[in-house]
Amino acid sequence: MSNIPSELKYTTSHEWIRVEENDEVVLGITEHAQELLGDMVFVELPEVGREIDAGEDCAVAESVKAASDIYSPVGGEILAVNEDLEDSPENVNSDPFGDGWIVRIKLSDPSELAELLDAEAYQGLLEDE
Amino acid sequence: MSRKTALYDKHLEAGAKMVDFHGWEMPINYGSQLEEHHAVRRDAGMFDVSHMTVVDLQGEKSQAMLRYLLANDVAKLKTPGKALYSCMLNPQGGVIDDLIVYYLADDHYRMVVNSATREKDLAWIDQQATAFGIELIERTELAMIAVQGPNAVAKVGAVLGEDRQQQLEGMKPFFGRQLGDLFIASTGYTGEKGYEILVPESQITELWQALLDAGVAPCGLGARDTLRLEAGMNLYGQDMDEQTSPLAANLGWTIAWEPEDRDFIGREALLSYKEGQDTDKMVGLIMESKGVLRPGQAVVFEAEGRELRGVITSGSFSPTLGYSIAFARVPRQIGEQAEVEIRNKRVAVRVVKAAFVRNGQSIC
Q1: How many Å lie between the alpha carbon of B223 and the closest alpha carbon of chain A?
Q2: What's the rounded mean pLDDT across residues A38-44?
């Protein structure tokens, strides 16, 4: 069974969100998602400063197998991207909740967080799949 | 209901992630496709290829029938065990399947055909065989393991024991030899040295385990795909199909035009293509910038003052080279440079021959 940290929020499309101070969040893909995608060989990151809408794709994870869009469930401004992934995309496989983070976003509407799944609900989703 | 090979439990035991592959439950990887790929390039890896179909042709007119069925000419095969790669064409010159045929005796040939095309292949071959009054025997009791890599021959040798190892000594590439219950062929699909071993299903688990114990890494379909792409080998259904002639799929070398009086299915259609020179061709693409080339992406280039377009048929990240490579079917006018459309962006690619790695080293 995949690791599902209890302090994070989740999406039905297998992203995770860590809520930090000052309405900032960090986004990545879950352990389950990286398992499905397989060995990561490239992550296409957005430009810092870009404004994104909730539900919009903000990055592309390319594994040996396939390319997958990564969606942000929240709108806001891209504050930072994980540049280490340019040389070490495999961090998404080895440490999806840590070194494999993808973008940091400044929320434009913090109330959107209420739509996200908690760890228990996400676990339920995986069990149903 | 999908079918399982005799090694199904061994795959699960080795931690395989199983997927449906043309009606068979097959391992896509055992944890890391990249590590499996490197195991084959650097040491030795093995694949369960029991889903492939083995068909024996027996009868006096076997050779005559195969000379009519296949675009390559089995009359070239004179030494027992010698193998030949060929396309089997439809009357329009499209590829029904690609296959390997082994010459065992004048009245006995063995073919190994793809699993994806099994039903239509068997029906088509059977139709031709019946017309020649010969018997088609599907060898469903045989299972098959491919062992590939620079250390594959030594590791298989150790497993087979000294006697059988000696009997294999000096066997050239593209030969098969019957050793007791085992049929061992120096063929493969990765560009590395190695064997494809046909074995009665009842013995395959034991052989698999012995190879595991000898340090041969189990490898899934994922690694098989990146390995064959690096090696410049076509995948049926992706790089060619019934609408594609071998001439457009980089397989012109497999057509035996001589002797001119040999009639084979599709010959007439191929001749009209050949004279017209109007078919597309298959090339290799290299993209050293970040990103991954994928099947279906458009290839664009300028020639004769206008924009021409082709399409990627197979594309992936090359684990050996560290950047993306692809096969593309394109108009013949293509030069050394082109662009590929990746998610609304155009990225520059270099055009090369459709082969990238030999014996673990870059050749592009």
Answers
A1: 9
A2: 95
Take residue A88 and report the two structure tokens written for it.
């070490």
The alpha-carbon gap from B292 to the nearest alpha carbon of chain A, in Å, equals 7
Alpha helices in chain A (DSSP H): 31-37, 84-87, 91-94, 119-128
- pTM for the model: 0.94
d(CA A22, nearest CA chain B) in Å: 34
| Model pLDDT for residues B44-100, shown as the tens digit of each residue | 999 999 999 999 999 999 999 999 999 999 999 999 999 999 999 999 999 999 999
**How far is the CA of B149 from the CAs of A123, B82, B362, in angstroms?**
41, 21, 16
Indicate if the pLDDT at residue B187 is higher than 70: yes
Q: What percent of chain B has pLDDT over 70?
A: 99
Contact B291 A86 (CB under 8 A): no
Q: Is B226 on the interface with A (CB under 8 A)?
A: yes
B283, B353 in Cβ contact below 8 A?
A: yes
Least CB-CB distance to A42: which of B29, B34, B291? Answer: B291
Contact B36, B220 (CB under 8 A): yes
Contact B197, B157 (CB under 8 A): no
Q: Residue B235: how many CB atoms within 10 A of its CB?
A: 19
Which of B:301-330 have CB within 8 Å of A? 316-317, 319
> What's the pLDDT score for residue B273?
83
- pLDDT category at B274 given cuts 50, 70, 90 is confident
B154 DSSP 8-state letter: H
- The edge-to-edge listing of strands for the beta sheet with B3-4 is B3-4, B24-29, B17-21
Query: How far is B222 from chain A, CA to nearest CA, in Å?
Result: 7
Q: Is A62 on the interface with B (CB under 8 A)?
A: yes
- pLDDT class of B278 with cuts at 50, 70, 90: low
Distance, CA of B283 to CA of B303 (rounded, Å): 16
Task: State how far Cα B206 lies from the chain centre.
Answer: 26
Beta strands in chain A (DSSP E): 9-10, 15-19, 24-29, 40-44, 51-52, 57-63, 67-71, 76-81, 103-107
ipTM: 0.86
Of the candidates B29, B34, B290, the beta carbon closest to that of A42 is on B290
Which residue is closest to B294 within chain A, CA to CA? A66
Q: Which residues pair with B289 in a beta bridge?
A: none
Asked if pLDDT for residue B360 goes beyond 90, the answer is no
